[in-house]
Each structure stands twice: as structure tokens, then as C-alpha cells.
């Protein structure tokens, strides 16, 4: 007599289907390779049908496996929706809040974490630094702090500040080059990993490929390359204006690119006490630095060299 499939069984099937291997499924589920092997064998024996074909380079679902995985996806969505809705009924500002943000905004966030802890000591923060947009629908994070012109319609949030950009170079580089002729300068660009960013789009429209001395895959590296004198770079003002080794090529910020700083969460979590409390503190903290984000607080080093 077959036993009923449990949600945990379908999670194993879904993980193997998504990863295509036992080792990948084990990492996704946070268990050992042997555990996935044993559980998958028990599931197949229970349902009386092979769910995956075993190949030398991995696992591929059979027709039955595809059916089971599709069902698991639907159930996963239902479970995650239920979790969000139950979480939304929490009336106490306590518990864990997972925040995801970029490498450059993480530096700004860290200046305010201590105040957050003082305001809400019962909230434990988990901070994930990543330039990839976390999937808030699947609860990879509760709150995302992101620079973007327009967030996804699936999310709700607060627009905290505009993000201005300017062109920056090291003091030594700009002393030996004519900074008034932008076409005569070496430029530092972004590689394909950041090709969709507003900076990359501006570079594509305004800088010829032969002018680009090197490309990097992260904004901190872009700033560091400019500080090292490899050329000039377009940077958000909250990154460039605080770098002691850089100054703006021109005093004014660029008309384009423009972006905005958003605090985002999923619609189902917007009334959760701990999420609302965290968003309130974060909004106040980042709004206190609006001049920096909007390029109205140039660093003293830049001012001295103009």
C-alpha cells in the first residue's frame, strides 16, 4: 500500500528537478548528498514509478517526474503565500528581518544598524550583500534596499531619494590630463554583469569603445580603478563624493543617468509589525543622507581641488 506523498517529499523532487543533480539538490535543501539519494529512492519506491533517469552527468525527470515537479511548484507557491500571509498577522515588532542590498548601499546601511538595534532590540537583522535582486516573493529576503528607476509592480515600497551621478577621476590623473575634453580621457567601464545598470547604459550612449581602458564587474572596483588613476568613471555621488582620492571632473551632477533609492517589500508583508518597524527606521536613516545621494554634499577633498 502506497503512503501519501508529503510536502517534504515533493520538495526533494523539486530540488532534484531544478538542480539536475543530487549534490545541487542537497545544497539547496541544506542536507547531505546521501540523504537526497536515500529519500529520492524511498519516494520512487513509494509511488511505484521512476521519477528521474540517471545519467553520467546528472538527473533528468521522466514524464512522471515532470508531473510531480510541476505539482510541487504549485504547492510551493501556495505554501509561500500562506507563510507570507501568516507572517503579515504578526502584531509585535520582534523576530528576524532579512535585508538584501548592494555592496555600495551596504556601506551606508551599516552606519545605521546600531540605531536600528537600539530602537527595536527584539528584531534580529540578517543582512545579505548582493547585486542580484533577491526574490521577495519566495522569501529570499523580507526587505530589499535597491537603486532602481522603477521597481517591480509585484513589490511595494518607499522612494527615499533620487540618486545622482557624476564623473570622477583621481587628483593625479586629472592634473596630468585635460579634464575639459571628455573625449580625450581614458574611461573605466562596466562589464556585461552590470550591463543593464543606468551607468552602463550612459556609457554605451556617451563613450566610444576605444576610450575604455578597462572594465570591471562591481561599483567598488569601479571606484578603486578610478582612484588608482586608470581613468575616469561615472559613479553614484554617494560613492564618489565620499572617496578621498577622487574629485568630480565637472562640479555639477549629470542630468542622466538618474536613478532612485527604494525600500521594497512584498505586498503580503507590508503590514507585518517587524517589517513596518524596520522600514520606518530605514526610511528615516536613508532620508537623513539625502544630500549625499542627490549629489548635494560633495566631499571636502573634491572641493579643495576645484
From TrEMBL:
Gene3D superfamilies: 3.40.190.290, Winged helix-like DNA-binding domain superfamily/Winged helix DNA-binding domain. InterPro entries: LysR-type_TF_proteobact-type, LysR_HTH_N, LysR_subst-bd, WH-like_DNA-bd_sf, WH_DNA-bd_sf. Keywords: DNA-binding, Transcription, Transcription regulation. NodD regulates the expression of the nodABCFE genes which encode other nodulation proteins. NodD is also a negative regulator of its own expression. Binds flavonoids as inducers. PANTHER family: HTH-TYPE TRANSCRIPTIONAL REGULATOR (PTHR30537), TRANSCRIPTIONAL REGULATORY PROTEIN (PTHR30537:SF3). Belongs to the LysR transcriptional regulatory family. This is LysR family transcriptional regulator. It comes from Bradyrhizobium jicamae.
Amino acid at each position: 500500500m502506497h503512503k501519501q506523498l508529503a510536502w517534504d517529499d515533493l520538495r526533494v523532487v523539486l530540488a532534484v528537478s531544478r538542480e539536475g543533480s543530487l549534490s545541487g539538490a542537497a545544497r539547496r535543501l541544506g542536507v547531505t548528498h546521501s540523504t537526497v539519494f536515500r529519500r529520492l529512492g524511498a519516494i520512487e519506491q513509494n509511488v511505484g514509478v521512476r521519477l528521474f533517469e540517471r545519467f553520467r552527468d546528472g538527473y533528468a525527470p521522466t514524464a512522471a517526474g515532470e508531473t510531480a515537479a510541476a505539482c510541487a511548484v504549485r504547492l510551493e507557491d501556495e505554501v509561500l503565500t500562506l507563510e507570507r500571509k501568516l507572517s503579515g498577522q504578526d502584531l509585535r515588532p520582534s523576530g528576524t528581518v532579512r535585508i538584501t542590498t548592494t555592496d555600495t548601499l551596504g556601506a551606508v546601511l551599516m552606519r545605521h544598524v546600531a540605531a536600528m538595534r537600539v530602537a527595536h532590540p527584539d528584531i534580529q537583522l540578517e543582512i545579505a550583500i548582493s547585486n542580484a535582486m533577491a526574490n521577495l516573493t519566495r522569501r529570499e529576503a523580507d526587505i530589499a534596499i535597491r537603486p532602481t528607476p522603477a521597481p517591480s509592480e509585484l513589490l511595494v515600497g518607499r522612494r527615499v531619494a533620487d540618486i545622482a551621478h557624476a564623473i570622477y577621476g583621481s587628483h593625479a590623473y586629472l592634473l596630468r590630463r585635460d579634464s575639459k575634453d571628455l573625449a580625450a580621457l581614458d574611461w573605466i567601464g562596466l562589464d556585461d554583469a552590470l550591463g543593464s545598470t543606468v551607468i552602463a547604459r550612459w556609457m554605451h550612449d556617451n563613450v566610444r569603445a576605444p576610450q575604455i581602458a578597462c572594465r570591471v564587474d562591481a561599483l567598488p572596483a569601479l571606484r578603486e580603478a578610478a582612484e588608482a588613476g586608470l581613468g575616469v568613471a561615472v559613479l553614484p555621488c554617494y560613492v564618489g563624493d565620499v572617496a578621498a582620492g577622487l574629485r568630480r571632473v565637472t562640479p555639477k551632477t549629470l542630468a542622466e543617468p538618474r536613478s532612485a533609492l527604494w525600500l521594497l517589500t512584498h505586498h503580503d508583508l507590508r503590514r507585518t509589525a517587524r517589517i513596518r518597524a524596520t522600514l520606518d527606521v530605514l526610511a528615516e536613516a536613508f532620508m537623513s543622507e539625502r544630500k549625499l545621494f542627490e549629489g548635494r554634499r560633495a566631499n571636502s577633498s573634491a572641493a579643495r581641488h576645484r
